[in-house]
Amino acid sequence: xxxxxxxxxxxxxxxxxxxxxxxxxxxxxxxxxxxxxxxxxxxxxxxxxxxxxxxxxxxxxxxxxxxxxxxxxxxxxxxxxxxxxxxxxxxxxxxxxxxxxxxxxxxxxxxxxxxxxxxxxxxxxxxxxxxxxxxxxxxxxxxxxxxxxxxxxxxxxxxxxxxxxxxxxxxxxxxxxxxxxxxxxxxxxxxxxxxxxxxxxxxxxxxxxxxxxxxxxxxxxxxxxxxxxxxxxxxxxxxxxxxxxxxxxxxxxxxxxxxxxxxxxxxxxxxxxxxxxxxxxxxxxxxxxxxxxxxxxxxxxxxxxxxxxxxxxxxxxxxxxxxxxxxxxxxxxxxxxxxxxxxxxxxxxxxxxxxxxxxxxxxxxxxxxxxxxxxxxxxxxxxxxxxxxxxxxxxxxxxxxxxxxxxxxxxx
Length: 412
Hints:
Layout: H1 2-27, E1 47-53, E2 71-75, E3 84-89, H2 98-104, E4 118-121, E5 139-143, E6 155-157, E7 162-164, H3 166-179, E8 187-193, H4 195-202, H5 204-208, E9 216-222, H6 237-249, H7 257-260, E10 282-287, H8 291-298, H9 310-314, H10 321-337, H11 339-342, E11 348-352, H12 363-366, E12 373-374, E13 377-378, H13 379-387, E14 394-396
Parallel strand pairs: 3-5, 3-8, 8-9, 9-10, 10-11, 11-14
Antiparallel strand pairs: 1-2, 1-4, 2-5, 6-7, 12-13
């Protein structure tokens, strides 16, 4: 009887665990971003870079969700890159209510206590010229993400012992890096992936303002073009998520005024409503069928109670013709969102028709023998050509399934 009871209880407990995971998946830790520190087979021996805590941050109230000090990983530049700086803002979803933020503060996404003491630098952070041809010898910095609002919040919840200080973390980190030599930069690039890609857009003009006009300053957003899209149930999962983030964390005061002057704060957390107003040259790198947006925004379990999208969500090869038509509609929405942006001579664009997310930090997608290409140009070369004004880069792939160079993500 005891054995029977165990077999009755176990499936129920497992179902509850799965439901809880998908709940957090939608609002905090995505499936995809668990791959962030996965080292691709291309780079068997990546450079490991240690964590530096920002000791001046505490006095400024610039702390993680749990009150611990924020930090970054920095590998010094040398030679021709000694005075060049690349800042990579870490991604990792958001938290939009007390419950998910309390959960988050017990992880590396909300506390430096749980952060890895060393992380691999691959892709755009690699120190090898054959893996990162244009930025390998720059000062390369990975700023850790521990606030849950793309480095833009500034409030607190004393009852839950939560500090929402993303904007202060951003400012404290920039001040610390300026004191360590970044103020002498002759060229700088602010980049980020996912929630960090959104942060790179929202902070782009602030970053430009740190440097003299003579410094070449540009921004790169990788997988940060989150769309205000309708989900498969007709609801607005991601707008609801963003509304919670903005309201809970006091984000509205730190969003671009040129947007909040005529739109509500939640709308101004969506890049499509901000990118046309950014004065600093910006490069948008995005998959037309972004894996995170498919899983957590377009077809999350909450919008798909009968599981019609379950297989398609995990593996694009299992999508039905009607589901693929829906995803083609999402691609069209993305292309419409960047129409005005792409008209600027200074901006850059690389939209490939892949089921992917965060392509600049993974070596196999950034620059490798078989990395994704559009018109025979891999991502690293496209970004470098744009940054150094070697040629204009505004490339948009033909629709799925025409691109055979994609490294499509499949989940089991």
